[in-house]
Design a protein that fits this description.
The complex is a heterodimer. By secondary structure, chain A is of the alpha+beta class. In chain A, α5 runs antiparallel to α18. Chain A is elongated, with a radius of gyration of 27 Å. Helix content of chain B is 69%, strand content 0%. Chain B has 8 helices and no strands. In chain B, α3 runs parallel beside α8. In chain B, 39% of the residues are buried. The interface between A and B is large, with 59 and 54 residues.
Chain lengths: 682, 192
């Protein structure tokens, strides 16, 4: 009964932590980054393929026609649970949310178990669970959609088996510890590595030889998974201070991440450089650590103030019994700082910093397999485990002292309430960010009934730049046509394969970054024909685009096509065949009428430089003498007016989205409307 | 000390660190990042990897500003858009900078604000251009705007912020010169 109450209490705490998501489980997700949409697609795709009996590791449902290997996603076991939920009849969005909340809930329970073992009671268990489960790190990863990282309870669970093994060594406990470590492998190789680090730390402290035996057994059990890990992550490139100090390298990496480097310029060396930069970009900065605020961006996440406060206070109370936990926590924290000490995220690396490599650097360079942990900030999950255990040891010490027991109850209740509601009030208050509506655009149902053939959603990008763009892969579940767009081009072998295919077809290359790259675009009718021969039939253009204030940042305008791009598409493919309020689908002709196209705005009388991402308060000053047939094209967003008028026409706008407006030139009445990409032609 | 007292003291210490010392230290780190570039001179700026591009933009702005056009905002926007692309080549998430560059053409208070920002970046001796343009936007909350801009520029890496601000002030200088030329021409014609 007591265990049931504990489980229910943690369930309530986790629901409060993710509030208001529990109210909209079937329709919305906390999808602040592209990972959420990728995971949704993967679960949905595998479930659909299993139902149809067509599941294969290689699929061309995305990255068509190159194809993609599903094993490259990794974390197969966790996604498998999501697939089982869908097969059991749970709607996809609800299954994803259940997976998130379930992963978090079990993490809290595992930490509670560790705390209970260390401190000998449920109060200690609550202390450990609170430290571990309510950290900004778990929130950040969960909000980003990295559900596999929220299922971090494997670490405290493994620590629990080691504590039990150290207290009463036996073969059953040795095997239990080995099994606890080995089972992490199929779920998350990051955490397998981190659990191994935690295990080594505990062995150095407690010196129980069977711990090493358990870890050796687990390594042997997980050995067959190594080829899959190798597939998921290409070999990590070498890192160096010189690279991190190189301003030009930082600039190249920024352009690569921003998707503004020309596709043809991408090569193995440049992508390796970008991967190497990930190591320092994913390291915890001193500035983040000394504030340890509750932030939404996982890259800036830390164990958090509460974890440090409870852990250090617990260690102070427990004395020598908690020194080991504190030592491992300290060592793990140093590892989160990455290869060099960086004060903040201003590149490049300072000279003094470059001369002082941290322990992570030699481990990355020389310890086999360690370089797979190329996102150092995630090592804070080890810190969290140890701070939680130290906190529970302290609670046990205070309770054993028979003074302050009541104070512990009051403090735990108050801290628990504060901890579980942090996303709603602490620091950046990331929990107040609106949830993402994960329902599919009805346009895709229309597209699903259309003639067979692969789809290109434009603008095509080789990086998942914005949420609107990251959703293209998820939308494939609704229209079911094979899709060229793919969020997984962050893996360099797939990006190089994408480059080889797309760069070889000037028509497809013209669709790349179409929202930002100015013309001219040049391709031949044969290029369109070749795309059709390869299996393509549809080009989808969006007339409503989610206003991205998170992932997209400055790149958010990349999704908005300008007038010239629209003219090029219409001129090449004719008018769209499928239309809705939100999107158009252009059909690729089997035999294009023109042999060659070259689209350029140069010399077009009266065309203007587009207003780029500005919020202009009308009236604009100026005079305009339009020629016959002159048109104005722009994107508009409510702030907060729900419509914009051009001449006599009224265009309704939708909250939180940019809407494409095309009209004959006229007076624009747009009070309370944000406008961007204004272009006048003719 | 008993365990409870030790825990209370430690809790107080950690809390004090994160509430007081930590944020102060973080602020110093940010100041330090700015300070790394405080000694920059105009020569240093010219050696900046993006300086050549910045110079091209400024030249283009000059050309545009000299043309007979009433579309002041468009001139500013051309520069703003290009500067954004320039800045984005070094760091993403600079979209909010554009209004700073864009609105300078017509917002009288922003040159003063820009000069203050320049002073913050070590350009205290830059002459402050005269306010230009009419107050074209009734209802504009200038104070809120200024606060927002200060925040945006504070968050920029100093070198990027300086390139942008240098370009902004160049543009303002061009516009001021043009306004003076127009006034002189009007006086010469006896219509001033």
């Amino acid at each position: 009964v007591r265990a049931g109450v504990v489980a229910l209490a943690w369930l309530a705490g986790i629901l409060a932590f993710w509030w208001p998501l529990p109210l909209q489980m079937a329709t919305h997700v906390r999808g602040e980054r592209f990972d959420a949409w990728t995971t949704l697609w993967l679960i949905g795709h595998v479930a659909d393929a299993l139902r149809a009996g067509t599941l294969t590791a290689e699929t061309d449902a995305i990255l068509f026609p190159v194809g993609y290997n599903l094993w490259s996603f990794g974390h197969a076991a966790l996604q498998g649970i999501g697939v089982l939920l869908v097969l059991a009849g749970v709607p996809l969005i609800a299954a994803y949310n259940l997976l998130l909340l379930g992963a978090h809930w079990t993490s809290a329970l595992a930490a509670h178990l560790l705390g209970h073992e260390v401190g000998g009671g449920h109060r200690a268990g609550f202390g450990c669970g609170m430290v571990f489960a309510t950290s900004p790190y778990l929130y950040g990863e969960g909000a980003a959609g990295c559900v596999e990282l929220v299922s971090a309870g494997f670490l405290p669970f493994f620590a629990w088996t080691l504590v039990r093994l150290a207290r009463a060594p036996s073969w059953p406990r040795t095997l239990a510890a080995a099994a606890a470590l080995a089972v992490i492998g199929p779920f998350n190789w990051y955490y397998t590595l981190f659990a191994g680090m935690l295990g080594l730390g505990m062995w150095l402290w407690l010196r129980e030889p069977r711990m090493l035996l358990a870890m050796g057994l687990a390594a042997a059990l997980d050995a067959p998974l190594i080829p899959m890990v190798r597939r998921e992550t290409p070999p990590r490139p070498a890192i160096s201070a010189a690279l991190f100090e190189d301003e030009a390298a930082w600039a190249r990496t920024a352009r690569l991440s921003d998707g503004t480097l020309d596709l043809a310029d991408l090569d193995e060396a440049l992508l390796e450089e970008g991967d190497a930069m990930q190591v320092i970009r994913n390291s915890t900065h001193v500035r983040s650590l000394v504030t340890s605020e509750f932030v939404g961006n996982p890259l800036r996440s830390t164990p958090g103030i509460l974890a440090f406060a409870v852990g250090i206070a617990g260690a102070a109370a427990a004395g020598r019994r908690a020194l080991g936990w504190l030592g491992i926590a300290g060592a793990a924290t140093v590892l989160t700082l990455g290869p060099f000490l960086t004060l903040d995220d201003s590149p490049p690396l300072a000279a003094w910093s470059a001369s002082l490599p941290l322990p992570y650097f030699p481990l990355y360079e020389w310890l086999p397999f360690f370089s797979k942990a190329y996102r150092p900030y995630r090592i804070c999950v080890v810190t969290l485990t140890c701070l939680g255990a130290a906190g529970s040891a302290g609670i046990a010490a205070i309770l054993a002292d028979r003074r302050g027991g009541r104070a512990v109850d009051v403090a735990l209740a108050a801290l628990g309430l504060a901890a579980c509601t942090q996303p709603s009030w602490a620091a950046e208050r990331p929990g107040t960010t609106p949830l993402q509506d994960a329902r599919q655009d009805p346009f895709y149902a229309l597209l699903s009934t259309a003639e067979a053939g692969a789809v290109v959603e434009v603008p095509l990008h080789y990086q998942p730049l914005t949420l609107a763009n990251a959703r293209f892969q998820y939308a494939q579940l609704a229209h079911r046509h094979p899709l060229l767009n793919c969020n997984q081009l962050i893996r360099r072998p797939d990006l190089l394969a994408f480059r080889d295919y797309v760069a070889a077809n000037p028509f497809l290359a013209a669709l790349l970054d179409l929202g930002r790259r100015p013309g001219p675009w040049s391709f031949a009718g044969g290029d369109v024909e070749r795309a059709v021969r390869d299996g393509f039939r549809w080009v989808v253009v969006h007339r409503r685009v989610e206003a991205d204030t998170g992932l997209g940042g400055a790149a958010a305008s990349a999704d908005l096509l300008g007038a010239a791009a629209l003219r090029m598409l219409r001129g090449t493919l004719g008018e769209p065949v499928l239309t809705s309020e939100t999107a158009w689908a252009f059909r690729l002709p089997d035999q294009p009428e023109n042999a060659r196209w070259s689209w350029s705005d140069e010399g077009v009388e009266g065309s203007t430089t587009p207003l780029d991402w500005a919020r202009w308060r009308l009236p604009l000053r100026g005079t305009l003498e339009p020629g016959p047939g002159a048109r104005v094209t722009f994107w508009a967003k409510p702030e907060p007016a729900a419509e914009v008028r051009v001449g006599g026409q009224t265009f309704p706008l939708a909250d939180g989205t940019w809407t494409l407006v095309e009209a004959p030139v006229g007076v624009i009445a747009a009070d309370g409307v944000a406008i961007t990409r204004l272009e006048v032609s003719g | 000390l008993n365990p409870g007292a030790r825990a209370t003291l430690a809790l107080a210490g950690v809390t004090a660190f994160f509430l007081v010392a930590g944020p102060a230290f973080a602020e110093r780190i940010r100041d330090g990042a700015r300070g790394r570039h405080r000694a920059w001179s105009a020569d240093d700026l010219s050696r900046h990897p993006d300086a050549r591009r910045a110079a091209e933009l400024i030249t283009r702005a000059r050309e545009l500003a000299r043309r007979e056009t009433t579309w002041d905002f468009m001139v500013a926007e051309v520069v703003g858009g290009d500067l954004r692309r320039l800045a984005a080549s070094r760091l993403p998430n600079l979209a909010p900078v554009i209004p700073l560059v864009g609105v300078n053409a017509v917002e009288p208070e922003l040159p003063v604000l820009a000069a203050r920002l320049m002073a913050r970046f070590g350009y205290a001796d830059v002459p402050v251009p005269a306010p230009t343009g009419p107050d074209a936007w009734p209802g504009w909350d200038r104070r809120a705007r200024a606060r927002a801009l200060l925040t945006v520029v504070d968050d920029l890496p100093p070198d990027v912020g300086r390139v942008i601000l240098a370009g902004t002030l160049e543009l303002l200088e061009v516009q001021r010169a043009r306004a003076e030329a127009e006034r002189a021409a009007a006086e010469a014609l006896g219509v001033g």
